[in-house]
# Entry
Amino acid sequence: MDVSQKQDLNINTASEKHESNVRSYCRNFPDIFLRAKGSILYSQSGKEYIDFLAGAGALNYGHNNDFIKQKVMSYLDTDGVAHGLDLYTSAKEKFLATFNELVIKSKQLNYKIHFCGPTGTNAVEAALKLARKVTKRPGIFSFMGAYHGMTLGSLSISGNLGVKAGAIGTLNNVTFMPYPYGFMEQFDTIEFIDFVLKDCNSGIEKPAAIIFETVQAEGGIVVAPVNWIQRLRNLCHQHEILLICDDIQVGCGRTGPFFSFERAGIVPDMVVLSKSISGYGFPMSLLLINPDLDIWEPGEHTGTFRGNQLAFVAGTAALEYRQINNLEQDVKIKEFLLRNFLNEEIASISEKIKVRGLGMIWGIDVADCGGSVFAKQITSRCFELGLIVERVGRNDTVIKILPPLTIEVPILQKGCSIIKQAFEEIFNQ
Ligand SMILES: Cc1ncc(COP(=O)(O)O)c(C=O)c1O
# Structure
């Protein structure tokens, strides 16, 4: 999201009158939404939209998923605890048991679970704070193109200079390393980091942690190669630096397996999850911690909304739903469909158009083919035709395809055909 690109399409809403200028997505999708089911949003005017935005990754199981909804409704019906700070509750007990059984144990992992404040950025803050506490080092290495959230610590490790501009003078102790993207793909970025760490004259101190995304989502759908992820893991071992994987957007099955780093067979020291972990769009975030690193004092990273009870109920149901419906396999089928569509029907329009992605997160990069103006024309036309799809990457030049994992194949195909129509119309103008 590029702040400079946001402008109202003005539909005279109370939000336009009263809501702060900071509002964002609504400017690009100007309609008033009434209800939503599965992969479709219904507006007040009666128009239907296919949702390829999926709450920016918070709706992997679709809107108002019946299986999850029914569990939430019955919990509310029995007056289950709706807010419980971090008290032991039946909802939390069940979530922890299910998460441990279906995710941690089944993958032979070993993590303690820290429930953080409700949004992803709070779990990122916790990870940074804990890494610094464990290692007693102030520095963090992050990657160019990264996005980790909007609070000061998370912003300090994010690449987008536009969104960082307002935080004048507060974003310290971070060094950005090159991610394997664009020109850097021809450059051994891991060797570079290794060189920097070994060079006693580099001017850069050994950091507490390196934080990374296996797929930079907001950064423009840049997929890190498996070998790069494995070498990053080894590098962190060699230099005794903690490795934090931010799986907020591409975890929870977005790339197929539950964790996005599984494709590289690595185990990070800490993992940050949020967005679809609650399964229903409820706010929830958590930090997975290698038990040896769990040196928090009681209450050291606490908060009033740490542990959203409805999110526990929905999150438990989501994990069961994922298992019952073999969502991992389903993602493979839809990945095949998306890959073919993008390569055969979109990339073939011009060699200047690049497509990237895996699982059910894909990007159409038009930076060399009309850039941000062209990208904006495409997504606006898609919206007119009944498809919600956003732009990410440098100057918002990448069209991001992020449907719910549960989208029905005919709806997925219809969304794709809208993208194709928009490309054909605008490309031939
Ligand atoms: C990879 C990544 N990390 C962190 C965040 C921040 O999460 P939140 O917006 O819930 O604070 C996001 C949000 O888009 C994200 O994509």
Remarks:
- The pocket of pyridoxal-5'-phosphate is lined by residues 56, 119-121, 124, 147-149, 213, 217-218, 246, 248-249, 274 (CB under 6 Å).
